[in-house]
Amino acid sequence: MTADLVLSLKNDPAEIARLAPLVAEFCARHGLAEATAAQLTLVLDEAITNIISYAFDDSGEHEISVRISLAPGALIAELVDDGRAFDPLQVAAPDLAAPLTERAVGGLGVHLMRRLMDDIRYRREGARNHLVLAKRIA
Amino acid sequence: MELTTVKIGAVSVLDAAGRIDSVTAKSLEEKLLALIKEAPPALVLDFAKVDYISSAGLRVLLVAAKQSKAAQCKFALCSLKPQVREVFDISGFGTIITIHPDRASALAAAS
Description:
Chain A is about 30% helix and about 30% strand.
């Protein structure tokens, strides 16, 4: 049975950089491409940044749990937090065809998540947000 | 993330190194906007040593590109690493921000 990568981050953007070397090591250990590790790292950054920005109403310390695992043919990341109900998939997509002066600044994080992962599901369970991201791997 | 500026002729060149993410994007933004305020004819952002960029960084570049256009300053990036280039392409930034393969072509285009 392969070991999952499990860790807990505080709701502080500075914590996100902890993920890069851990994800790289997990992917290398399982023979996955470096590009896959880089893409997963970015997706986690975007998702966790949004959770930190939007899910918590107070200024207190919260934890975001991260679990990365392998299923047959898929790399799976699950994020759990105890913030208010927040579904990152509801954020509006950017207009990629707009010229420079009309391009809006928001929405890119979710767009990157959708493009780099094959499946993203959000659910609310009790007092927790669960976000499961999956990427098909060869 | 480290930022170094140099003037090559009338062109301002900003070298960035490291990660551009939600923690470091603010200082990149401050530096870029300060450089644009100096009203150079051109500003080149060299990404040869940038390993990583998230949407926080892309947002800063979009703001810089818009401000440069308004200030009639030619804004361009150069030397993007493959994983950084991929993020730009997925976000559609290749069509709204000028990107050169290397510093030499960026400087040639700026003058």
